[in-house]
Amino acid sequence: MNTVVTPGEAMDAIHDLEGAHPGFRALHAKGSLYRGTFTAGSAAVTLSSAAHLDGRTVPALVRFSNGSGDPTRADNVPHVRGMAVKFTLPDGKTTDISSQTARLFTASTPDGFVEFLRAAKPGLATPLRLAKYATQNPALVRTLKVNAVAAKIPASYATIEYHALHAFRWSDASGGSRFVRYHWVPEAGEHFISLLAARSKGHDFLNDDLDARLGEAPVRFTLQVQIAGLDDSTVDPSVAWTSEERVTIGTLEIVGLETEREHDGDVVVFDPMRVTAGIEASDDPILHFRSLAYSESVRLRSGISRGPDAPN
Ligand code: HEM
């Protein structure tokens, strides 16, 4: 199915839901940048020839965020959280992984997602609109149960898994290829707090917690890839894969706050379409639409047009 909705219409739907906040990302508006490194283990190179997966240690820029478009959103209420990672390749270019705490996406297409945003727009008719949307869009109902974890409040940004949801094709040096989905698994394990306990936590407790942890020691995540089975969809991020085959790819080590970036006109964009040799985007229409929507958000927040060459 071809995408009908435009990136501009997606921005309008987001702004109607979350408000327009000039200078901020349209979604995931509240977030902080951290620096660290990524080192792949020996299994990575057997699956992809990508330069950052050959075992050397490469620099990584990481942004943890609240999924809301409101930059003042408190940390102690439920919401999806984001973890975006930018790896610097040996030639100075970068490649990104953009992930969030939901295990499946709520829609199968960009049109479906924007329709969902419109249905969720606050107002008297919202429950009715959402009920109608749910009956017409089985993806939402299918994903609600499995995404319950994303509605819980993590004890820390460092104690919850993040999932990139889309399929990417990894090619190795011998000409073999396979589709994979990415999962970031916290070294500290998954830990949550109750809604009651969250009430006594501060407005920015997730950032405060992470900064305190980093004052003591690095925070680590393992990158795992799930390898698609024969019947697993490579174009629909709202459908779970049946394959349970997971391979550990490497370790992300976060060491501290990144204080140099995003000042004096510096613009950081995490774009899931920013891949590199050895990794290809699948035909998932949501994956492709995201790049266009992010460019529109970047234009609105910074005035910069990423141009026809985006995302590279
Ligand atoms: C059609 C579907 C989607 C739309 C329209 C959308 C829209 C947006 C927009 C406008 C931004 C702000 C971009 C910027 O200004 O740099 C954003 C950020 C983000 N999105 Fe999405 N998104 C979609 C799907 C997804 C999915 C499937 C994921 C996770 C797998 C995701 C994860 C994120 C993350 C982690 C960020 C924050 C990136 C950062 O820290 O800079 N989004 N999204």
Automatic annotation (TrEMBL):
Question: What Gene Ontology terms describe what this protein does at the molecular function level?
Answer: peroxidase activity
Enzyme category, top tier: oxidoreductase
- Keyword Iron in record: yes
Q: Does the keyword Iron apply?
A: yes
Q: Which CDD domains does this entry report, sorted A to Z?
A: srpA_like
Occurrences of domain Catalase core (ranges): 6-312
Q: Do you know which PROSITE patterns this protein is assigned to?
A: CATALASE_3 (PS51402)
SMART domains, alphabetized: Catalase (SM01060)
- Top-level taxon of the source organism: Bacteria
Tell me which Gene3D superfamilies the record gives.
Answer: 1.20.1280.120, Catalase core domain
Q: What does the UniProt keyword field contain?
A: Heme, Iron, Metal-binding, Oxidoreductase, Peroxidase
Look up the EC number in the record and give it. 1.11.1.-
What is its biological role?
Answer: Has an organic peroxide-dependent peroxidase activity.
What is the name attached to this protein's record? Catalase-related peroxidase
